[in-house]
Amino acid sequence: MDYVKHPQAIQSESLDFVGQYTSALGLGPVEDQIYRRIIHTTGDPAIVPLIAHHPQFVTAVYQVLTKKNFTIYTDVNMIRTGISEHTVVSLGGQVVCRIGDAAVAAAASEAGETRAMTAARMSQNLIKDNLVVVGNAPTALFTILEMAAEGWAPAAIVGTPVGFVGAKESKELLEQADIPYLTIRGTRGGSTIAAAVVNALLYSLKD
């Protein structure tokens, strides 16, 4: 059987194919690439109506990615490892996830809350004015929005937590906050989508 074997050719052909689902949406070139990568990652064009983003989202993220010593803060390690670290480092930044820190685990246990919540509170200096990427834990997104109201707002948020307890509600709250965002409405989402969004932004900036 004849089939495409080269990895770059597979990805390029896939992204070109899903363009049929974004071409009529009137998106800017960067937003179009983001939407294509979300469809490509999920394998599901039906996700398009669930994608929502702030009109200043791309601009806000670019402002982060072009400043010195920027941080991309993630709620879980799956996102951290999914983001192109080579590209982040080449731009002068770092990707940080603290959910596995021993100090975070101890403090979360004592407080009786999720490690994602504690990690966020213990990372306020890394979160403020940087890019936050939440793809798993609704409690992380709730906490970061509370922190924003207290003066620790990130410059932009990719908020795609998945699940049936708090995910939908946390993303609804995100859309009401005065912070540039991209989200997947409802219970759908996940870390792979979050990482794909960030990579689309990184690659578009490098290009």
From TrEMBL:
Gene Ontology MF annotations: precorrin-8X methylmutase activity
Xref: InterPro entries: Cbl_synth_CobH/CbiC (IPR003722), CobH/CbiC_sf (IPR036588)
Keyword Nucleus part of the UniProt annotation:
no
Q: GO terms for biological process?
A: cobalamin biosynthetic process
| Coiled-coil positions | none
Q: Where is the signal peptide?
A: none
Which pathway or pathways does this protein act in? Cofactor biosynthesis; adenosylcobalamin biosynthesis
Pfam families per UniProt: CbiC
Q: Which UniProt keywords apply?
A: Cobalamin biosynthesis, Isomerase
Q: Quick check: keyword Isomerase in the entry?
A: yes
The residues covered by the Cobalamin biosynthesis precorrin-8X methylmutase CobH/CbiC domain are 10-203
Q: Which family does it belong to?
A: Belongs to the CobH/CbiC family.
Q: What is this protein called?
A: Precorrin-8X methylmutase
